[in-house]
Protein 1
Amino acid sequence: MTAAPAVPGAALFTAVDIGASSGRVIVGGVGGGAAELHVVHRFPNGVVDRVGALHWDFDALFAEVLTGLRAAADHAAAVGGVIASIGIDTWAVDYGLVDAAGELAGPPFSYRDGRGPRAVAGVHERIGPERLYETTGLQHLPFNTIFQLAAEQAPGLAGHQALLIPDLIAFKLTGSRRTESTNASTTGLYDAVAGEWATEFLAALDLPVELFPPLIEPGETIGTLLPAVAARTGLPAATQVVAVGSHDTASAVAAVPARGPKFAYISSGTWSLVGVELDAPVLTEASRTANFTNERGVDGTTRYLRNVGGLWLLSESIRAWEQETHDAGSPASAPAALAPPLPGLLAAAAAEPAGGPLIDVDSADFIAPGNMPERIRAAVNATGVTLETRPAAVVRCILDSLAASYATTVRQAGRLSGKPVDVIHIVGGGSQNELLCQLTANATGLPVVAGPVEATALGNVLIQARAAGAAPTALPDLRAIVATSHPGTRYVPQS
C-alpha cells in the first residue's frame, strides 16, 4: 500500500478500521486527485467464550486502538505531517452498555452468541415482522441489535446507554456519546424514512426510550481527545474524532470506484454485503419476503442489500485444517486430507471441475465457530450428493456457492429496486481472491472490477478529508479519487 504523502505540514487522517477477525489503524492523505494509505498497526480480533457466552474483549481491543494511534502520531512526525482527525468504523449490531459514570457493565456480547435468536419470537409477539420492516426496512437477521437488547435482563439496562462498538470506541477517546446514523440503521430500531430512532419500538419492548445517544451524521465532529488519551497516544488533545460511515460497509460503499450509477457492489470479507445504492428505501412486501435490507449510507443514500454468507466459511475451514495438522503432531503423520497454504488451496480449487455441489451460504448452520468442513460436507450430503473430504473440493464448493449466491442477490436487488446494473464492484478482502472474482463474473454474466482491498479505510479517510475541506463534496467525485488511485482488476465472464 502506498505511503501517505510526505508533504511537510500536510493534513493526515487516521482510520481505525476493525472487523470481526482483525483490525487496522491506517493513516491516509488526500491530494492531487489521489488518496494514499499507510497501515501503521494491525492486530487480531475474535470472539471470546466466557462462561458459555460469546463476547468481544473490548479492553484488549481499545488497547490496540491506542497503540495504533500512537503509531499514527509517530508516522505523522516521521513524514512531517499533522494528524487532522480520527474516524472509526467496525462491524454492525453489537454494543456495550455504559453507565452514568462511563463504565462498561461487562464485555460486549458478540452477534455470534445464541442469545439473539432465542429472543426473536418474543419480539415478534409484540411487533410483527411486517410492522418492523415497514419502519426499519431491515433484513431479518436473528442477531440484529433489537433481538440482542430484548434478550437483556431489564434490570441490567437501568441507568445505562447502549453504545454501538464504533461509538463506544469514540466515547472512550472523547467522552462524547453519539450514535452514528449508518450503524444506527442496522439495529432494527431506526426509522429508515424519517432518519430517526423508532422510539415506539423501544417502548413496545419495554426498553428505555433514551437507551441510545443522539444521532450524528458522517462528517460531523464527535469530539476531541480526552487528556489521558492524548498523553497515551502522543496526539494533541485538540485532535478531532469525526463521524464517518461507522458501519464498515457504509465506508466501503462510499469508496466503490464506480464511474457511473449503474453498479452493484459486493463488500466481501467475513460476511458479504451484496446490493445497490439507492436514493430512498424499498419497503415493499416483496422486498421483505426476499429479506433485503435498507441500511443508511453516506450522504443519506440507501444501501439496498442482503447480508450473504462470506469468507468466514473459508477462514473457519482453514482454521479446522490447521488444527488437524497441529493435532497430528507432524506433517509426516498428518492425514491426507490436510490442506496446503491458501495460495495452493485456491490453485487446487480452481482445477476442480465446474458444476459441483452447492450449499446455502446463508444457513444458520454456518454462523457459529466450529468444524466448518464437516458442517459443509453434512449440508451437501443432506441433499443426496457426496462432497469429498479433500480440502480443494470443499474450497471449490464454498466459492462456487458464494458466487451463485452473489449472482442471485444482484439480480434480485436490480429487480426489486428497479435499478439497472451493468458492472459489479467487489471490494474488501475478497477482491484479492481471483478465483472468487472470476466465478462471480461467470455466475452473473457481468464484468467484475475487483478492489480496492482497503475500500473501508479509503471511505473512512475520504469522509474525514471532506469534512476538513481537503476533498470534494460530491460522492461521485470522492469515488473518482478512488478510481484514479486504485483502479482495480477487471474480470469478464467466461463460459
Protein 2
Amino acid sequence: MHAIVFLLIYALSSAPVAAQTPPATDAPPTATPAASAPTLDTVLVTGEQPGPGLWKVTRRDSDHVLWILGTQAPLPKTISWRSNEVEKIIASSQEVLTDAQAELKVGIFRAVFLLPAALGAKKNAEGRTLKDILPADLYARWLPLKQRYLGRDDGVERLRPILAANELYGKAIGKSGMTNKNALWPVIEKIAKRHKVPVKEIDVPIPVDNARQAIDDFKSTAGQLDIDCLATTIARLETDLDSMRARANAWAVGDLEKLKSLPYPDQRAVCLNALAANANLREKLDAAKKRIRGAWLDAAEAALWNNASTLAVLPVAEMVSPDGRLAMMREKGYLVEEPQ
C-alpha cells in the first residue's frame, strides 16, 4: 500500500503550508541548470539551544491560556533543545496537545491483497526509467543531485517522478546536517510524564473506502504534472538548501524575526497539484485537510474552556501564515500574542 500511504501522508502529515508557499496553480520554478551540487555556506548551530519563545492564546472573557510551541523542520541534527521554560509551563498545565495527524484506515487483509498493485503504482509505466521520461536538461540536473544524495541507488530511476522527488529530498536533508524528525516531541512527552500531565493525541481517522480506486487514481496522475513535481524539488535543492539551514539556525536560537524574513519556497504545492489533477484525489485530500485542521481547532478551543493552562505544538510556518490555524483563532475572537 505504499502508493496510497504516500499520496495521503505526503499531503496531510507534517507539512504545513507557509505564508510564502506558492499556490498549487503556480508553474514550477526554474533554476539555472547546475553542473554540480551546490556549495553550502551556512554553518549549522550545535549544542544546547533555546528554540523560539511561546505563542500565547487567551479568551477575552477568561484568564485561561493556551501556550503554543512552534516547531520547525528541518532542524540541525546536533542541537540539544533547552526546555526549561516549557517544563515550567507543562508542570503548571492540565493538558498537552499534539498536532493533528492523519491516521489512514485501510483493512490489513485488503492491504495485503492490493500490495502488488500498490507497488506497481510506484513505478513508471512499461518499465521506463527517469532517463526515458524526463527532458534531457532536467535529467542532466537530476544526475549530480542523485549521485550526491542517493549514491548508487539505481532503483530510484524506475520510480514515478513524484516519488523520486520524495526520496531525493529526504536524503538531501539528512546529508546536509539536518533532520526532518520531530526532536522536540520526545522531550515534551517525557516532561509531561514526569509531571503527570495528560497528553491528548489528536489522531484523525482517514478512511480509504476503496483502496483499489485510490491506486487507480494515483496511477492516473502520471504525466507532465508528475514531472513538474520533480523539477520543482530539484530547483529547491539547487537554490534553497542554504536558506533551509538558515531557517533551522533561526529556530534554534529563537530568532522569530529572522524566521519570518527568510523566504519559504515549498515544492509540495506543485507536487500536490499533480495529485489534485485527479478529481477523486482532490476531493479526498481537501476533505481530509479540512478535518485535520478542524480536529486541532476543536481540541484547542476545548482546552481553552476547560483548562487554566495548556501547552500545544504547531509548525512555526503555519503559525505565521495569514491563513494558518492561529489566524483562524484570531478570526474566532481569541487574543493571540507572539513571543517577545
Protein 3
Amino acid sequence: MKILILGGTRFLGRFLTETALKRGHEVTLFNRGKENPGLFPDAENLVGDRRSDLSALEHGEWDAVIDTCGYVPRVVRESAKLLAGRVGHYIFISSASVYKELQNPGIDEEHPVSRFELAEAEEMTQGLTNPPDNEYYGELKFLCEQEVERQFSGRSLIIRPGLIVGPYDFTGRFSYWVNRVAEGGEMLAPGRKDKRIQFIDVRDLAEWIILMAEQRHSGVYNAAGPESALTMEAFLGECKTALKSDAEFVWMDETFLLENDVGYWMELPLWIPDSEQMEGFLSLDIGKALEAGLAFRPLAETVRDTHEWELGQVALERKAGLDKDKEQAVLKKWKSRKADA
C-alpha cells in the first residue's frame, strides 16, 4: 500500500510510520520537518505546514492517509478536500474526549458527543492549529471527524483513543507512575483501590491502525485497553512487580486529596475523583475494536519499556505528575491525621 501520514515523526505518528515500513508499505510523510527530521530515510518526506502551505500535497496518489494531528476543523477540511480525489481511504485519529455524559461506564461508539457550532469554532480557532487551552478539545475533534466524513463519505475511519501511553510519550501522565514506583519507598496512591482505569500502548494502537488500513475498515471505533477491566490497585501492583520495586502504596481517600489541593488527571495522572462523575471516560466499550483485531501486549512490557525510555530523558520537561515535595507533605499530613484519629 501507499500510505500518506500527516505528521509521522512523533509518538503515535512515529510508531505508525515504523509499523507501516516494517510491513512493507510505501510511506510518505507530510510535516513541517522540525520534529525528528531524517528519522525515517526510507520514507518519502514532504515538507509543509498544513495551516498555510499544502502545496507539497497537490500532487500524488495514495491508498490511505492517516491524519495524526488534526485539531482545527478548518485545517482538517482543507487537507481532506485537497486529497479527496487522490486518496482512497482517510483515517482520522480523534479522541474519546468527544463524548459527553460520562457518569456511566461502557461508553460505546453510539454514545452522545459534545457538539459545538461550526461557525463559532471557525471564529474561535482563526489562525490557530490547536484549541485554545484545550477547553473545547472534544468538541473540535468531533467537528474534525465531520469534515473528514463529508469529503470521504463511506471511506473514512475514525479512531477514538483513550489515553495513549508508552515510549516517547512526552505528556508524562503514564510515566509519572512508572517513574514514581521505580523510585520506591512510601508513595501516595489515590482514591478507591478498585477504581477502573484505561490506557493503550502506542505500539498496539499503531499496529492495529495499520491493520485497519490494510483491511480498509470504515466507521467509528473506540480504542483503549486492556481487554479486561483494570483497577488502579492492579496497575500499581503490576508496576511494582515489573520494576522490582519496594514501593509502599499509601491509599488516600478523594475527600482528603481534594481538601489538600491535589489535582486530578494531570497533577495525579489516571485519577479522576468519583465526585466528578466521569466513570465512563476510563471505561470505554472496546468490543467493536476487539472484533476488528485490536490486541494488547502484556502490561509489564509497557511498564518496563516506558521506564527504559524514561531513563534516557534527563532533561525532559514533565507536563504531568505530583511534585515530590508536595507528595511528601501530603503523606505527612495523612499520617498525622491517622495518628490523631
